[in-house]
Design brief:
The complex is a heterodimer of chains A (617) and B (799). Chain A has 617 residues and is α/β, with parallel strands linked by helices. Chain A contains 24 helices and 19 strands. In chain B, helix 10 links the parallel strand 17 and strand 18. The relative contact order of chain B is 0.11. Classes of the chains: A alpha/beta (617), B alpha/beta (799).
Chain lengths: 617, 799
Amino acid sequence: MTIKIKSFGELKELQEKIKAGRDPRKPGITLCVGTGCLAHGAMKVADAFREEIDKRGLSVKIDFRKTGCHGFCERGPMVIISPENIFYQHVKVEDVGDILEKTILKGEVIDGLLYANPQSGEKYVHEDEVPFYKLQTRTVFGMNSKVDPKNMEDYLAVDGYSALAKALAMNPEDIVREVVTANLRGRGGGGFPAGRKWEETSKAKGSPKYVICNADEGDPGAYMDRSLLEGNPHLVLEGMIIGAFAIGSSEGYIYVRNEYPLAVENINVAIKQAREAGLLGENILGSGFSFDLKVNRGGGAFVCGESSALFASLEGRAGEPRAKYVHATEKGLYDKPTNLNNVETWANVPFIIQNGGDWYAGIGTDHSKGTKIFSLVGKINNTGLVEVPMGTSMREIVFDIGGGILNNRKFKAIQTGGPSGGCIPEAYLDMPVDYDELTKVGSMMGSGGMIVMDEGTCMVDLARYFTNFLASESCGKCVPCREGLQRMREILVDITEGRGQEADIELLESLGASIKDGALCALGSSAPNPVLSTIRYFRDEYEAHIKEKRCPAGVCKALITYSVDPAKCTGCTLCAKVCPVGAATGEKKKVHAIDPDKCTRCGACKESCQFDAIIVR
Amino acid sequence: MIRLTIDGKEVVTEEGRTILEAARENGIYIPTFCFHEKLLPIGSCRLCLVDVDGYDKPMTSCTTPALDGNNVTTQSDHLFRMRQQFLQLILTSHPLDCPQCDKGGECQLQNISYEHKIEKTEYEAVRIDHKEAYPTPLIHYWESRCVLCGRCFHACREISGREAIDIVGNGFESRIAAVNKDDCISCGECLSVCPVGALTETLSPVKSRIWQSERIDTTCPHCGFGCQLTLNVLDGKTITKVVTEKNLPPNNDSLCVRGRFGYDFVNAEERIGAPYRNLDGQKKTVSNEDALAFTAESLKKLSAAGKGTGFVVSPRATNEEIYLVSRIAASLNNSRVASAASYHTGKAAAAFAQMGISPLYDYEKIQTCQTIVVAGADLLINNHLVANKVREAVKLHGARIVSIDPLDNSLARISSAHLQPLPGQDAAVFNALSGRLLKDGRYSKDAETLEGFAGIKQSLEALSAEAPVGIDAALFDKAYKLIADAENVCVIFGSGITGNEEGLKALLNFSILKGLPQKGLVMPVALQANALGAVSLIENMAATEELLENADIASIFFYEDDPFQYLNGGMVKTSLAAKEFVAVCDILPTFVMDSAGVVVPSAAFAEKEGSFISGNGSLGAVNKACKGPSAGFDFLNALLGRLGKKTYASAAAVTEEIRLSGLLEKDGNGAERLAVKAGKLSFATGGASVPENADAFQLIFRDIFKNHHLADRGIYSKGASSVQSDALRISPVDARELGLSSGDVVVLTADAGETACPVVVKNGIRKGVLECVLFSKHNEMLSISSRMAKTIGVTLRKA
């Protein structure tokens, strides 16, 4: 698109023109090519669709659209057939011909591609009937399945940039007031009220003022910001332009994690399109307001998600937090007033402007408003991204939307808020999920990561894993984080390797408390959470490791032995075949044995045994 | 003012202070470790945590602003335990190798651990040592001892304006590394702020603990800034290191590479131990008495014959020595005293006197200026501390810098505008700035009442108020705006300006027009430790070549001076050959000694009593740190006696006489400084012409007046020579045109000859200009020009 939109009226006209040119009855195929689906081979499926559509001369008769992530990553690659909204999952290249032949041309539903409830076996034809989607409120994320991220017309067709037009006609103070009324809290980790940041930045003296989008999402297993930026970059842009207008900024940055090349590509395409269309740059939509932004790729340090470290990195210095005696809203990037929000926060802004702060404040709990996107990973059936109103219970998220625990095993705990979040045990499953409740139980909202653990997870090992991650990602500036996390890591390694000592738990607790209170930035002060929360809820596991030199979950290799249950072993020889070191041996149809001296505790025998005959102790 | 309560005590402080500052002002102790007064708060050690009502966590007092009504607790069991825990964490990865460590006995970690009763550490995990080279060979980085407090790389940036070192790696693997080795200027600020022995100096000839050596305060003998430093002396003989820890003005614990590491010449093996005479090309050692008698007789004889006597005295000699030289000169007929101070400080002082500008200035006034103009001065080698003061003004007060220099200089990188006039074009730049101030009516209205205003107005109106040819117009406009908008302006200039009379006049006229020195300050930097002293003490001071070339001067006495360092050596040699008597008194072998009939040893600065007058006019004490006689002073004093004049009981007696002469006065704080003769401010006439130069290149000498005790006939300071060297630099544009790359040898030709040397391509140099930094090759480089000049015209070709 190269037409420059010069006024609000022209925007409206263009939106209507695009909509009018689209026949709602026209058959359409929407394929998710988000990162999860790509990993499942979605690009090959896309190529196959293109080829088959061309071969059959259907290219004018049907719309084929590749979109960003829909969230149900477990079931990718996914296809939605419009206008019926038929939902196909696990679509393979071989299915492409069938879909065109049967569904598109004959209107038949292919049973084998439908989603079936793993518990009940019930099958669902339409996307909105699938419990995973049905139970969500996909306000921010829902648009992902409707737009091709590289096609701005798609975004305009769903009334994209209308919020911007509305905002540009408002007083900047009124925009800030709407965001304050909405009580939108930062989705990046801190949960700081965005409205307050906006208010402070708009009042701060100094120029230029900056707006920055923090897209340095670094939590392992979390990818909501990535999916938004990859899947609907214009939504994020629209939020930022509104924010810039509200606080009086003319320059902005999007700081994207270097490991997100597709996000960088799509946001750059979107910026170029927006610039050409007069939605960015000089005199936006003829309003007289000018704003432009640049994309900056991060250096790969987890700590750069921390605001002052992010500024340092943007300024070309080492990504190291600085002591914050002045708020970034007054002295941020280059010591100028800066409004930094993360991707999801910015993506919420157009909805608040369109529907009003009161509308937004009507969703959620007392102090946590709106919806929140969570990444649901771990030992769960429906791995993916889910968006629910604040206050939805953990049980609903894990069992109703998430489809429960893999292989019908027992739920043990859920870790929320990324690597420095805490682990919440089963007793709190009915707790409403919001900022304050999560903090109360020793965890946090963070950016919305949720890692589900089953009974096979060792909580000490888990704490060791996250502490190891955080110690490696510590920037090394302040003593508690640099030295303290290293000590915690060493103690945890000792415990999981059978060298734990009586006083270790107390030492971890006291070190953890000091780091929490004393560290310079949020990375450090939240880093002890995994250890402290697992000690709080699973102290007995620590004690078993230390006192009995036993790993109850059977995970810590130094503390476990593999043996064969003679009562269950059928002598099928499978364990002997899969054992990489020849520790499992035995004759056919006779009880097998495992040589503990040779065994490396890799677990291959246990995984392969069909008769549950491998005992881990 | 705001009120807050700290540990139950109500204290009052200024708004904007931190809790730590408020506590310290009121005598309340909060332990700190990474905090350093000269640096912005770092906040890495977390030891200064305090509880503040209203905050849910302890706050670092070094970074938390004190607010009205705060209730602060600095000591509690909980805080003490946290501090203990953090100290234990630091000690876990810090080796307890205190007996081997340089810092033993003066280590902050030792002190604070002891204070916090750390009796054992829970773990042991010594950091690995990557054994990577530190950016300067003068400092060793002991990675395993490093506690990563961050002071060093903050000092590198904040104090010295460099970015040579940084923290690299993550978490426990973090370490300090040379991220930009070439940016290091070996100033040693990192070394001086290191709280532990992670950075140690490699130059000390012997090691000694703080309680084993004597510490004597004195004034730095290198440039004229007047740094106060402390010599660590073992057995009254060997200087083992230089420290600055007393926060004394003007340098407040900062030093440059020469101040910190340029001390070893004092103990150099080559020191001249006994007087000798050059007889038939042979050096013949003689007794002190013989040397004295021979000198006295020779001078007396020539004087009696009506022949003139010349004295060339070093601007690094003490006031007392210079005074004795002038007394000796006064006792002889037709005598003149010359000094290398005449080339820069002498010219500036003369112009100041003529225009009624006080030569005294207060370095701290820089902090009150919004715009700082630095013209023709590279504050990297000389007066590095002035650059530090300027950086402080930028860092703490948001001052902006306008650099006026054809070359890159130490402040160019943080300048808001860097104008690059050709040598000689400075006058045009300042005239254009003045012209525009007049045109816009933005000059100081006080100027209208001054003598010469009408004349200057008329002549400026006839000139362009636009950017001179070759100067970027947008940058010029920016510079002008910064100057016009500033209420107070500081103008700092060096020998790049005084080398050209018109430029100096134009700069001073511009300064007066802008309301200086009332509304800011105008300051020449002093290149030698006692340049202003020499200028003030010597009446009718000559330039050295005037004496050399004057046939009426039949004898010359060089006192700690070697003209081969700043004049064409061939010319000096020829001139001296024609003299009937030449005497040299100095501490180390110099080129001029070859031409001397008698050579007498002198004393190094650390062996003398006396004083220097720094560039700002303040009197700095030179104190005797090493045992032994002050040979030079004693020789001058005895010579005075042999010439039938009054001798002095001590250097102090000479100081007293200088005092009585009215040359010194006390400032408001009781400190002694040069007495100022009040003058009436007026404009200078002239200062308008822009000389055209036909030469292909203008070669600018840097550091021509370095202390020759660092290197002359030989290299006498291993410290300075290990990090400083001669260099010829060319702009990338010229290099491209001539097909040159760094390392290529070029031949330079000027009016008196040619020389070959390797060239380095460097950014930031204006096209058509060459930068020549001198360290030990003064002779070769100066031999190509017949006259003494900061800038010479040369042609250049690839060898």
